[in-house]
Specification:
It comes from Flavobacterium agricola. This protein is of the alpha/beta class. Among the domains are: 190 residues, Rossmann fold (3-Layer(aba) Sandwich), CATH 3.40.50.300; 160 residues, no CATH class; 33 residues, no CATH class. It has 17 helices and 15 strands. The strands form three sheets. A six-stranded antiparallel beta sheet has the order 2-1-4-5-6-7. A six-stranded mixed beta sheet has the order 8-12-13-3-14-15, sandwiched between helices. Strands 9-10-11 form a three-stranded antiparallel beta sheet. Helix 13 runs parallel beside helix 14. It is elongated and about 155 Å long.
């Protein structure tokens, strides 16, 4: 329930801080005193959008902070679902900055408005005479019947399956579409894949092939150069080997005379060994040069095919072509695999359809059983509120598809007076009748739901006398299971509350401000007397007020 409210710099309110208790609290005040401002402030707590016009002083920020005691309302799962830290005393704060930006916090953690709006529906319901239009909405009527039928767990199970069903259907439709597109490309992809398969990319070493091609294409030139080199090395009189041997012999003789030439001899010997080795290597390479036009042709053909495919696919390496081949293989194979995947999804969809249908049938049955009970309770309360001849009919059309709440498309039809035809509530009920029907429904729902707090904003407008008294009794009865606030102009209603707050307006330092005060017993008598006969209330009005408050 709402047990603390702080408002600063909002509309006509400079600063306000109030404590509230369980039971039924009355809020009264003259028109324009600021009752709507209180509702506006609470609206911000519920996640409504704000603007700079809300600020009393445009240079300072506006703060609205509400404390909710929610220990007994099992809301931990709601907080967890919205990723908010839970606390038995939950604090919601809204701030509107002079820049126009708005911030929201729950238990000091910043949140966005959509999360706040989702959370607030579990904390507070503000109902005014202008909001009876929701009564005509099929979704609201279905919500009422589900509350009476205790369909909460069944609906949660249904909606979980519906989520899976929609996901499977979406995947099935996407696969079907992808398969159609893939089939269109199948022939082309197969052609591209076959080109790559025929080339046998795994067997190709592009760098090695290019080296072989370079050798085979220039084998005559290579033969000429190697032969010339070998001649330079091995010519009998003037070859490098012969000259090195002669050089070694001469220096060897000098070295025999003096050791001074030993190192030089060693170096010449080393060079001679190296040149001998080079000569041997050149001879081998000369012998290995074989003119092979067939191999040259084959290598050239393979490389030309490789270059063509690299150009076609816009790549430069065999590795990149291999990746493209793998991708094409997956696309071609996917066409064959799609049927298996589609068949598996079809089986899953059929099972989910059967499961959903079973739960939808249970919902339909439970709603059909709950509707007469709900109608009976509504009519019982409406009879107390002067609508003794009202009658309701329950109408249900089963939808072809699965809806978010089952397959039921229900509607409550109303005949407000004897002899009149049944019709949609919004078409056959007057504004006053809509208010009374809504009050009856809210009273019934308070027995089935655990909403902590409800605020009735002048829902009793247009009624008086005994009907007003009955409305007050109904709202007071609701306060036994939830916290109830009632904004009213009627003394009969005002006298029923456990607490009475008055909103008033005054001028302070040349500025109009609104204040909210909790009235004591004496102040309450005078306030109700004023509501009965105006500012110049008489002694009889005071006595009447005491009678209403049962103080006489």
């Amino acid at each position: 329930m709402l047990n603390h409210l702080y408002i600063s710099n909002f509309a006509l309110i400079e600063s306000l801080e109030m404590e509230f208790s369980k039971g039924m609290s009355i809020i009264t005040g003259e028109t324009g005193a600021g009752k709507s401002i209180l509702l506006g402030a609470l609206g911000l707590v519920l996640g409504k959008r704000a603007d700079l016009s809300s600020l009393k002083n445009k240079d300072e920020k506006c703060i609205i902070e509400a404390h909710f005691a929610i220990k007994n309302y099992n809301l931990q799962a709601v907080f967890e679902a919205n990723e908010i830290d839970y606390d038995d005393l939950t604090i919601i704060r809204r701030e509107i900055l002079p820049s126009g930006k708005s911030r929201a916090f729950v238990n000091d953690s910043p949140i966005n408005l959509s999360v706040l709006q989702n959370l607030s529906q579990y904390l507070l319901d503000i109902h005014s005479q202008h909001q009876t239009s929701e009564l005509a909405e099929d979704s609201f009527q279905l919500e009422m019947i589900d509350a009476v039928a205790n369909n909460h767990k069944l609906l949660a199970q249904y909606q979980m399956l519906l989520k899976q069903y929609k996901k499977a259907k979406k995947e099935y439709n996407q696969l079907t579409s992808d398969k159609a597109d893939l089939i269109k490309e199948y022939d082309y992809n197969s052609f591209l894949l076959n080109e790559l398969i025929e080339l046998d990319l795994k067997s190709i070493n592009q760098e090695e092939l290019e080296k072989q091609l370079e050798v085979l294409a220039n084998i005559e030139t290579l033969q000429e150069h190697l032969d010339k080199g070998l001649a330079i090395l091995t010519e009998e009189q003037y070859g490098i080997v012969a000259n090195l041997k002669e050089l070694k012999a001469s220096i060897g003789k000098a070295s025999a005379i003096t050791s001074e030439y030993n190192e030089l001899l060693e170096r010449i010997t080393s060079v001679l060994i190296e040149v001998d080795d080079i000569t041997h290597e050149v001879e081998i390479k000369t012998e290995n040069l074989v003119h092979d036009p067939e191999t040259l042709f084959q290598i050239n053909q393979k490389l030309q095919a490789l270059y063509a495919l690299q150009k076609k696919h816009g790549v430069l390496s065999v590795y990149e072509l291999t990746e493209i081949q793998t991708e094409l293989e997956n696309k071609v194979i996917s066409v064959d695999e799609f049927d298996a995947k589609l068949a598996a999804l079809q089986t899953e969809i059929e099972k989910l359809t059967n499961d959903l249908q079973q739960i939808a049938n249970q919902l339909t049955q439970k709603r059909a059983e709950a509707a007469p009970l709900l109608i009976s309770k509504i009519l019982e309360i409406l009879a107390q509120l002067g609508m003794k001849n009202a009658r309701f009919e329950y109408e249900n059309v089963i939808a072809k598809d699965f809806l978010p709440t089952g397959r039921d498309q229900i509607q409550l039809l109303l005949s407000a007076n004897t002899g009149t035809n049944f019709g949609p509530i919004k078409k056959v009920a007057s504004g006053g009748e809509m208010s009374r029907i809504m009050l009856a429904i809210k009273a019934i729902m308070s027995k089935y739901s655990k909403l902590p707090t409800i605020i009735f904003d002048e829902i009793d407008t247009g009624v008086s006398g005994e009907i007003a008294n009955k409305m007050a009794e109904i709202m007071y009865d609701m306060s036994s299971t939830m916290q109830v606030f009632v904004i009213t102009h009627l003394p009969q209603v005002a006298s029923k509350g456990d607490y009475h707050f008055k909103v008033s307006k005054s001028v302070v330092n040349g500025t109009t401000v609104s204040v909210l005060n909790l009235l004591n017993d004496e102040e309450r008598i005078l306030q109700i007397a004023e509501m009965i006969s105006g500012d110049n209330y008489s002694e009889s009005a005071i006595n009447h007020a005491k009678e209403l408050l049962r103080l006489l």
